[in-house]
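Lecture notes, part 5. Sequence design as translation. It can be helpful to think of inverse folding as translation between two languages: the language of shapes and the language of residues. The source text, in C-alpha cells, appears below.
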C-alpha cells in the first residue's frame, strides 16, 4: 500500500525499520531500554531522509506510531512534531497474511490484536485518520485518502 500511495501522490515509499533493525528496536523497547530504542528508531527515520534528499515526500511503512505502542509517553517529546499520518487497518488475520506475503515473520494473532488496540488509541489521541483496508480495494483506499488530502 505504501508503494501505491507513493505512485498515486508522488514521493518515495520507504521502510525505515526493515529487516532485523525493527526486531532490534522492538527488543530494546520490550526490555525497557526506551532511550536507546527511541534513538535507534529516530536515527533510522533520519537515515531514510538523508538517503533520499531529493524526495519531497517519503511515505513510510511504519514510523512513530510503531514505536509509540511500546514507548512510554515521557519519551515521545523527542519525536515532535509528528509527520502527517494515516493508519491503514485490517483484522489481525489479514495483517498476518500480508506480513507473511512480504517475507516477514508474523507474530501471534493475540499480539496483532493488542497492537491494533494500541494503534486505535493513538489514532484517537493524535487525531489520525484510520482507513479499513479489509474489504476495500487499493483504488478505493487511495481515493479516500485523496479526498482527505484535498480537505486538509
Amino acid at each position: 500500500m505504501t508503494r501505491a500511495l507513493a505512485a498515486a501522490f508522488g514521493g518515495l515509499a520507504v521502510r525505515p525499520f526493515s529487516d532485523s533493525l525493527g526486531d532490534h528496536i522492538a527488543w530494546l523497547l520490550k526490555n525497557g531500554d526506551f532511550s536507546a530504542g527511541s534513538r535507534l528508531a529516530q536515527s533510522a527515520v533520519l537515515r531514510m531522509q538523508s538517503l533520499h534528499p531529493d524526495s519531497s515526500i517519503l511515505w513510510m511503512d511504519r514510523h512513530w506510531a510503531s514505536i509509540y505502542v511500546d514507548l512510554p509517553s515521557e519519551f515521545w517529546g523527542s519525536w515532535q512534531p509528528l509527520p502527517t499520518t494515516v493508519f491503514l487497518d485490517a483484522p489481525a488475520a489479514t495483517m498476518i497474511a500480508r506480513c507473511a506475503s512480504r517475507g516477514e515473520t508474523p507474530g501471534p494473532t493475540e499480539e496483532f490484536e493488542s497492537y491494533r488496540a494500541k494503534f486505535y488509541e493513538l489514532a484517537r489521541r493524535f487525531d489520525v485518520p484510520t482507513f479499513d483496508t479489509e474489504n476495500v480495494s487499493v483504488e478505493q483506499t487511495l481515493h479516500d485518502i485523496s479526498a482527505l488530502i484535498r480537505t486538509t
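The translated text above is only one of many valid answers, since several sequences can fold into similar shapes. Helices lie at 2-9, 20-30, 34-51, 64-68, 92-101, 109-126, 138-151.
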